[in-house]
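Handout, section 4.2: multi-component inputs.
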Amino acid sequence: MTAIKNIVEGESLSYIGLFKVKELYDLIEKWCYEMGYDHQELKNYQEHYDTGKQIIIEARPFKLISDYAKIEIRIFMIFSEIKDVEVERDGIKEIYNKGKVDMIFDLFLVTDWENILQNRPLYYFLRTIFDKFIYKSYTRKFERKALSDYEDIKDKIKGYLNMYKY
Amino acid sequence: MGEAIYPSNFSRIIKIKGVVNWSEVYGFIKAWFKNKRYDIHETTYKDKPDSVEGTNKLECAITAERKIDEYYMFQISVAIKGWGLIPIKDKTKNNKSIYKGRIRFIIDTWVVEDYDNIMEHGAVAQKLKYFLRRTVKGRMTNCVFADYVHYETVMFINDLKKILDLYAESEAFRQKIG
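Output:
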């Protein structure tokens, strides 16, 4: 049985204004590729309404940091009332998207992701003892690594969205 | 028919509500798998009027298989369902199906081990098979092949998003396979 620890749960980020959906999505994907995360996208919904487009994306990129532990970041994005807007910047006309972005972040540390130690209750008990007490320093190291990656991606997304305020 | 190993625990779902050129999408799916040397099996195809007057419903299930060697096989399945589809008359001369409504794609992928059931006859053969999977062939199954078919599916989904004209598509992982 894999053990899943919630390091970050339900942190949200909201933004209303100008941005580009494709560029924001590309930023997240490129970050995942550069940092060695594997791609995992569960949902990608795009719906057209009178008030604008609504896009819902659920991405769960993961990284296997050892044969025992895995970092998983869950990003749930809702883009609503998206409309195409033409904006002139430095004499060049570009098409941007105007609307609302809501993002919810979760961060998990998954241990025993291969389910090797799930066969017997004794293995499960020993695994828990090792995780909590004996290998505590390693587990904490993995958690710190996961948090650092999470802060990095969140800062990059905030930095990108803040660019369009000015 | 062999044992399936899933690279990911999740199915990938794409849903679109809007105008979709179904002929183009259908043709793209078949052409993509043909280019990648997959054998296509279409188990379901329904495109008929729905209970609500003036609308159509669509159901299509495609399974694509590619035999890597005498033991391993990649499988990608695409389940397509459409409902509340209103046909839009195309201005060009070709009679193409363009619909306005909701369409959902569910994409699953897996690696099939021992697809010809070579190691299924007898208890000894099965034990040998599990021994092979855990020791000799374990890396090939769990790391190499599972990873490869996972990223082939990612590329397929990316190209499908381009055809559907979705905003959220990226080429970032194209370098994984090329």
